[in-house]
């Protein structure tokens, strides 16, 4: 991939220090890190419940459906919900900030 002359003159250190890039980075981290931590805790809680409390996981809820199946299905629902939330947040917050940084680079504001 060839770079244009304008791109080769970009001062990437200045881009990284810019207020808009810092805002983008902070917005992304403040959303992704806590959500990732919460999901990992939920995921490992499910694994630990299955490993150490099999009787609880085998507790019937209705018919052949037990707690393990309900919590396992909850993992899928949680993953889907987090994905939808992230896409929505990216469209509303992260993408406009990234576009602003990109436009500044294209305009030569960071040489």
What does this structure look like?
- This protein has 111 residues and is mainly α.
- It has one domain (24-106).
- The chain has helices at residues 5-8, 12-17, 19-52, 54-57, 67-106; strands spanning 60-62, 65-66.
- A two-stranded antiparallel sheet has the order 1-2.
- α3 (19-52) runs antiparallel to α5 (67-106).
- The radius of gyration is 22 Å and the shape is elongated.
- The two termini are 21 Å apart.
Name its key features.
two-stranded antiparallel ribbon, mainly alpha, 111 residues
Total count of helical runs of at least 4 residues: 5
Overall average residue pLDDT: 91
Which percent range fits the helix content?
over 70%
Largest sheet: 2 strands, antiparallel
**Strand residue percentage:** under 5%
Unreliable sequence segments: none
Structural class: mainly alpha
Distance between the termini: 21 Å
Shape: elongated
Please give the order of strands in the largest beta sheet. Answer: 1-2
Number of domains: 1
């Amino acid at each position: 991939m060839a770079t244009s002359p304008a791109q080769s003159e970009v001062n990437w250190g200045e881009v990284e220090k810019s207020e808009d890039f810092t805002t983008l980075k902070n917005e992304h981290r403040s959303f992704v890190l806590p959500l990732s931590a919460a999901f990992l805790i939920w995921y490992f809680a499910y694994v630990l419940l299955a490993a150490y409390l099999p009787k609880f996981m085998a507790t019937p809820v209705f018919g052949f459906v037990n707690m393990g199946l309900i919590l396992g299905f909850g993992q899928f629902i949680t993953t889907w919900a987090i994905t939808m939330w992230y896409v929505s947040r990216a469209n509303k917050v992260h993408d406009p900030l990234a576009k602003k940084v990109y436009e500044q680079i294209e305009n030569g504001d960071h040489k």
